[in-house]
Structures are given as C-alpha cells and as structure tokens.
Amino acid sequence: MAAKPTIQMSSASVPLVHEVEVMDELGRLKTTYIPGERPLTIYLDKREVVTLMTLGSAPEALVLGYLRNQHLVESPDDIQSIQVDWETDSAAVKTRRSTVDIEALTSSG
C-alpha cells in the first residue's frame, strides 16, 4: 500500500492580540490587549484566488478549509504545500496535480 502523501506546511502563527495603551474614564493610561485581524491572500499554483481576514492563529488550516469548501481542491491529498508569509500577507499553495478551472469558479459571470 502506498504511503499517504503529506502536506508540507509552514507554522506561521502570529500573536492573536496586540498591546495598546488606552485612557480610562479618569484619564489614566492603561495597557490592554485587542484582537488584530490581518489580511491573508491565497495563491493557488501562483494564481491569486482570494484575500481572507484572519486572526492568524492557524492560517494553514484556514487556507486548506477554504480551498476544500470552495471545491478548489478535491482532496487534501491534492496539496503539496501551504506556505504562509506574514511579511507579504500571503499563502502560497502548490498542488500535486492540475487544479480545477479557477477562473470559471471565481468569476462573477
């Protein structure tokens, strides 16, 4: 029996909250934490698919779930790698075989 293919994935989690200074009702400065969403643009075989907003805790899982939900990949086995780069706010997905016709699925025609 052939080994099940694995997906090479980055581990690009980022902090879920950001420290900010706020002023309370008495004018005192305090430190608090707020969640911070960030954009993540998905590229499937070098073609831009969508930009999602995410907190960034599990971006690779978000990308995989989105691609499966939108039927852009038939199976996780079709994916060779998912690499997230927060410097460019992007996720590069490489497949093992040709993907479906992305233009047909993503056009608003």
TrEMBL record:
It comes from Polynucleobacter necessarius subsp. necessarius (strain STIR1). GO terms for molecular function: sulfurtransferase activity. This is Formate dehydrogenase, subunit FdhD. PANTHER family: FORMATE DEHYDROGENASE, SULFUR CARRIER PROTEIN FDHD. InterPro entries: Cytidine_deaminase-like (IPR016193), FdhD (IPR003786).
